[in-house]
Amino acid sequence: MRFEKKVWLSSPTMHGDEIKFVTEAYETNWMSTVGANINELESLVAAKVGCKYAVALSAGTAALHLCTKLAGEALYGMPKVGEGALRGHKVFCSDMTFDATVNPVAYENGEAVFIDTEYDTWNMDPVALEKAFEIYPDVRLVVLVHLYGTPAKVDEIRAICKKHNALIIEDAAESFGASYKGKQTGDLGDFNAISFNGNKIITGSSGGMFLTDSKEDAEKVRKWSTQSREAAAWYQHEEIGYNYRMSNVIAGVVRGQMPYLEEHIAQKKAIYMRYKEGLKGLPVAMNPYDAQNSEPNFWLSCLIIDKEAMCKQVRGETDSLYVHEKGKSCPMEILDKLFAMNAEGRPVWKPMHMQPIYRNHGFITAQGNGRARTNAYIAGESVDVGADIFARGLCLPSDNKMTPDQQDAIIAAIRDCFT
Ligand SMILES: *Cc1c(COP(=O)(O)O)cnc(C)c1O
Predict the structure, then answer these.
(1) What parts of the chain have a pLDDT lower than 70?
(2) 20 to 30 A from 27, CA-CA: which of 89, 261, 288, 308?
């Protein structure tokens, strides 16, 4: 079977309020990076997350960049022009993530060292992080992601960072609305970022936010994001600036989405639970979370195939090959099947330590230096958790507009792969 209309991985869902706020901006001529939508959105998000200040920016990446700059200046002082706030210092980063999490470290001339993933939440492994501090005791900054909307092992990671006197940048781009021990993600690090990119839980088509309890940090980010203009009648500059402010038009879209955040989360959770139920009996598991301590926003539903049920699959840098085997399957086979039925799935994020651009960066597993063991990986054996989840995992169509009938057809197609 083939869907007439494509079933997306995760697409924007508009409700009608968005266009009212956009039209208001248009009719009052606030077609700018100032206006009522920005102010209102900032207070709505701060109230939702439970932080004091929210600064609306052009993208989650911009928010992460300014988090990184703030952290660098807090740790190493103000840089000279062109020097970069991190000045060659190493930064421990989540490994299995979108590259937008870690690129800002390079923007500020730092060096990302990747920390392997754990199997319980698919996020940064505290054991590997502790190992990393043994190997690089001078590191003072950690970038932590909540992958696919599932909160990481925050308490464990915070305790390790406290012990080693390190600050945390929280990348909550995918996890807006998710909570950990009753606190919202986006309020758990020293510097926090969320995203309103088109495929996130709510969207402005683009956009992001910096979240903090520090008035001083909020003011710095607001200033940097508007070209670092000093208080003078003319354009006076004492620091490097950026054009990172959110547009009042985009803010109107996100403002209109805000009342529907919980509805989207409920829909995503229902999709996750439906997959979990529907895939019972197959040699697969859903992306896991700590039900005791966290409530994900269920942004994407993913599955991982049992080791024994993997058919032969190899991947080059840009291509792949697999051989179907009876009773077994692999992510590329399932993704091909979904594609053929006009549904969008995706491999899980390819870990940063496997990316050609970061090939010579450090990578630490729970056993120590992961790079020292890459020969075994080249021989086709996964020696780290990230490479293993990448080999066996995939993201399923998780669009909140997917009907139960469509989802049933997707589940049937996955079952078919294992016959
Ligand atoms: C989407 C995303 C970002 C970047 O957000 P943009 O708004 O697209 O710039 C950063 N980190 C993660 C984990 C993301 O999924």
Answers:
(1) 373-382
(2) 261
